[in-house]
Amino acid sequence: MSGEDVYESLPDGSSVGVTLGAGAMAGIMEHCVMFPVDCVKTRMQALACDKPKFQSTSIVKNLIFIVKDEGVFRPIQGVQAMAAGAGPAHAMYFACYEELKERLTPYTVNSWVPVSAVHAFAGAAATVLHDGIMTPAEVVKQRMQMCCSPYKSSFTCAKTVYLTEGLGAFYRSYGTMLTMNIPFQATHFIVYEKMQDLTNPKGEYNPPAHLVSGAAAGALAATITMPLDVCKTLLNTQEANVLTKLNTTKVVGLFSAARTVYSLAGGMGYFQGLRARILYQMPSTAISWSVYEFFKHYLSSRNKDISYPEDTLADLRDSMKARPELHPGTPVSRGTSEEEEPGTGDKERFWDTIVTDLPRQVRAKQEVMAESLRERNSVNSDLVHERTFPNYRTEA
User: Fold this and answer.
1) How far is the C-alpha of 299 from the C-alpha of 309, rounded, in Å?
2) Residues 2-28: what's their mean pLDDT?
């Protein structure tokens, strides 16, 4: 997608709070809506579950079994911890991705570096921040989701883990999560941006295109990183039955988790719950991108509503001549066109107001972009960009 598209980035002058808010809403919606499916996935990845009746390949059957056996609210137990973590985690995630993407994309112009490399790097960097916030929430969530979970609330679970295992227990799987999520998010963003090029080449707000692109990106990334997700689940849950079979108190480290999975379930153990993971990630990423793109569209639309429709400064001046009522305190002239137009001083003050009212950070950004474009000889020689008045131009 072109970096020139107005819609493809948040409006100029938008505060960091706007970006963080859009990302937070996307994360909360994504994880809360898909939480019951995530619960089934976690249990299907269990290596030594005491409930053999639950060992089914059908997500629907497993979900029905949980509801019948443990109550209607059991599939959403632990959703509070997920919502508390997903909001700030995704806020930082999208804010970091947008910032790095915007800053680094111009360097790919006339360069051997592909734009997909920027998407991959931005996604990987955003993942480090995301997982730093999300890992403790994942620990509480997955322990609440296990079939033999002794915890009655997310707060009780977090308190018990802290008192019995220490603060390090919340970050025991952080290295594994980064090992899994960095390639996951790099693949995710590359596929999403490529799918957008195919399904939405104009870079417009297109909900079906965002849904399809998000679903495809989530499915492919989930499949590639499935073995790491199984190891992460074991590190987070510390299944009691697994620890008993191993005659140990805890499983620590990615390699230890990988060996444990292989010894108990063989090579196929790395893909336990693959169908559930794909069916979770497809709608999950589709929802996340759809919500986020909606906020981008909404904010961009609000920004456009207060902009001027004219293409050049000359067009805008002609428009102002035709609409003298826009000049406060200036009487409407009823004479011929040769008569001197009153209110010249007001008109000059009008132009000064437009220029000086433009946010300082927007003016600085436009000047940096204009300088970069001139250095790369990408500015049309027939046009002269107004450095203090972006989006308008005068003919040379």
Assistant:
1) 18
2) 61
What average pLDDT score do residues 188-205 get?
87
| The residue type at 335 | G
Q: Which residue has the tokens 């819609």?
A: 7
Contact 39, 276 (CB under 8 A): no
- Indicate the residue type of 207: P
| Cβ-proximal residues to 278 (8 Å cutoff; 6+ apart), any chain | 218, 219, 222, 223
Q: Decide: 176 and 235 in contact? Cβ < 8 Å.
A: yes
Residue type, 60: V
Does pLDDT of 216 surpass 90? yes
Binning the chain into helix, strand and coil, the percentages to the nearest 5 are 70, 0, 30
The pair of three-digit structure tokens given for residue 261, joined into one six-digit string: 């999975």
Burial string for 103-117 (b: 16+ CB within 10 Å, else e) reads ebbbeeeeeeeebee
The Cα–Cα gap between 270 and 227 comes to 4
Quote the pTM value.
0.61
pLDDT digits (tens, 9 = 90+) for 243-276: 888 888 888 888 888 888 898 888 888 888 888 8
Look at residue 34 and give its three-state secondary structure: coil
Contacting residues for 366 by C-beta, under 8 A, at least 6 apart: 12, 387, 390
Distance CA 144, CA 85 (A): 15
The model's pLDDT over 326-358, given as tens digits with 9 standing for 90+, comes to 555 555 444 444 444 555 555 555 555 554 444
Phi then psi for 50, rounded to 5 degrees? -80, -5
